[in-house]
User: Fold this.
Amino acid sequence: MPKTLAEHLQILRPEQHMRVVGDASRLITAPFVETDYDVQVGGVFVARVGRSRDGHSMIAGALARGAAAVVGEKPIHLLSQVPLSVPYVHLANAQEATGWLAASYYDFPSHHLTTIGITGTDGKTTTTHLLHSVLQAAFAQKVGFISTIAADFGTKTADTGLHVTTPGAPQVQQFLAQMVDANLHYAILEMTSHGLAQGRLNGVELDVAILTNLTHEHLDYHGSFEAYRAAKALMFKMLDTSARKAGVPKISILNRDDPSYDFFAAIPADRVCGYGLSESADFRAEQIEFRPDATVFTVQDHPITLKLFGRFNVYNALAAIAAARCLGADWSAVQQGLAAVEGVSGRMERIYAGQAFTALVDFAHTPNALKNALETGRAMLPDGGRLIAVFGSAGLRDVEKRRLMAEAAVQVADFMILTAEDPRTESLDGILQTMAQGCIAQGGVEGETFLRIRDRGQAIYEACQRAQAGDIVMICGKGHEQSMAFGMIEYPWDDREALRAALQGAPLATLPTAHEGSG
Assistant:
């Protein structure tokens, strides 16, 4: 039986300062949406004042498509130009309310799951996939996940978007409901700072919170590192406010070697568990060996084999180990689950087309992730080999990281090509100029140790043309993503396809030409 709007609204918190105009007993038969073209007959339209568009301007369109009620942030007297013939709910923050409304609509599916959240600047997706594999081995395939790459419901998977790690609140709750319908017991969710700050994860009843690391990122949105950290902390605070589930403690899993450890460890939880390489870690990696075919190490005297490379992936594996062990997985399941992960899409992914050098695609798009990825590539180089890196930095995002990424890369790579990476409405030439200045500040010489090539397909082709036997070419920044934003348009793009095309002798040409797109 569908809930009434009044029943849905009961879960909204008092601080929302809710005022309802109209009959709130009307039946609601479709989910809550934030774009008028997504409205279904009988659904609720949530209007909020966004950064680029005011959702209240879409109310008329939502009503024309059959919306049965509207939730908004503006007093009704300011909407006199819209003939409201349905109930209107005025809230102080409609965006935060969306998560609770969606959870209520889908009958709070996370009440029926042991729910694990993973946040951090880097490593969320890899940690999600590693933990998913371990828990599947431990608990008979009863595990689902929502990651940057996909959502897994046990019997099927779904795409989760182009540039969004955390889907919208209705989609999150719908995915969780599908996991419940599939009789899954565990759900793993990547939780970004944006998703947390925007309330997309409100209504998720969390049991385990995992932090990978915290470095410079998203300061364009949050304004300061402290605000960014506070957004991440919202996930850990969910442990204290989430419903208790029989036999499931509230667990905080933290990187013992991260400078933010003490900050997050102070947030209440039934158990705080640290992982890392330091002696103070509860789960500590020792005897680490980076072999040509695998990474091996021990944790509490148990041997671990990981088919992923790099010290950062040791940390990702440790996070998965700590969470799985705290949830009751035995060591044999841990070992089996980690060894079963052959790779993660767009993460240090090898592309081979018969060439004499190694070609890799990686999602690294932050200064820390780029440095880690390139250091991993350098460790894989044979004697005499060179490391050639291709990367950019996104428009309308944290400006400071453009310089930081270039500075980090010039210290590790032998040669770099700076290129487009979602310039959006910013000047691509301006972005590349800032990056070039970062290279020069660390001793880079344009034309000798780095180039600027605006067209990403041409940049990847140039890198492959320069590569010789024994070299490693790394294409960083896009990973699994399937599009690139120029102006307001998402163009089809896949770094892996671009690399394959370059290896076969021609640049991929699905992006705007040099004189089009961003200026």
